[in-house]
Amino acid sequence: MDLWLVWLVMGFVLVIAELLTGTFYLLVIGVGAFAGAVVEWAGGNAIVQAVVASAVALIGTWAVHRWHLAQPKDQGTSNFLDRGQPVVLEAWDNEDARLARVKYRGTIWEARVLAPVSAVPGVTLYIEGQEGGMLLVGAAPPAR
Questions:
Q1: What is the largest CA-CA distance in the chain?
Q2: Which among 30, 78, 99, 124 is most buried, taking Cβ atoms within 10 Å?
Q3: What tens digit of pLDDT does each residue of 73-115 get?
Q4: Residue 52: pLDDT band by 50, 70, 90 thresholds?
Q5: How many distinct structural domains can be found in the chain?
Q6: Residue 112 sits in a domain of what CATH number?
Q7: Which range marks the domain in which residue 18 is found?
Q8: Statement to judge: residues 7 and 65 lie in one domain
């Protein structure tokens, strides 16, 4: 088997494995393997292939790491699709503890009002988060 084909197979294996992780690290290492295949195909010796593949993989890994550090950390609420949706205050369970029942999507939910508000039943509140089966609501829509 030709060496360029080995590099190519390694690249595809790494790129396919990346589909299972979703971090992009294996993707750039796979791109490094593709670069090694190109160098071998162009006639470079094994040392040059390894150096080019390693350099591409290291630079790519560094770039992915920097990109991950630059992304804002969302405290696990990035996939919470109900955030910002309006709910209607049905009744207070314990107004001092800010526990209430709200109507959302045609059903009644337990909710905790995050900031002290003197809301009367029927007022619109907005979902800010969720703890288990309890919605966390506030008087204003949360900033996106």
A1: 78
A2: 30
A3: 655 555 678 888 999 999 999 888 889 999 999 999 999 998 8
A4: very high
A5: 2
A6: 2.40.50.140
A7: 3-70
A8: yes
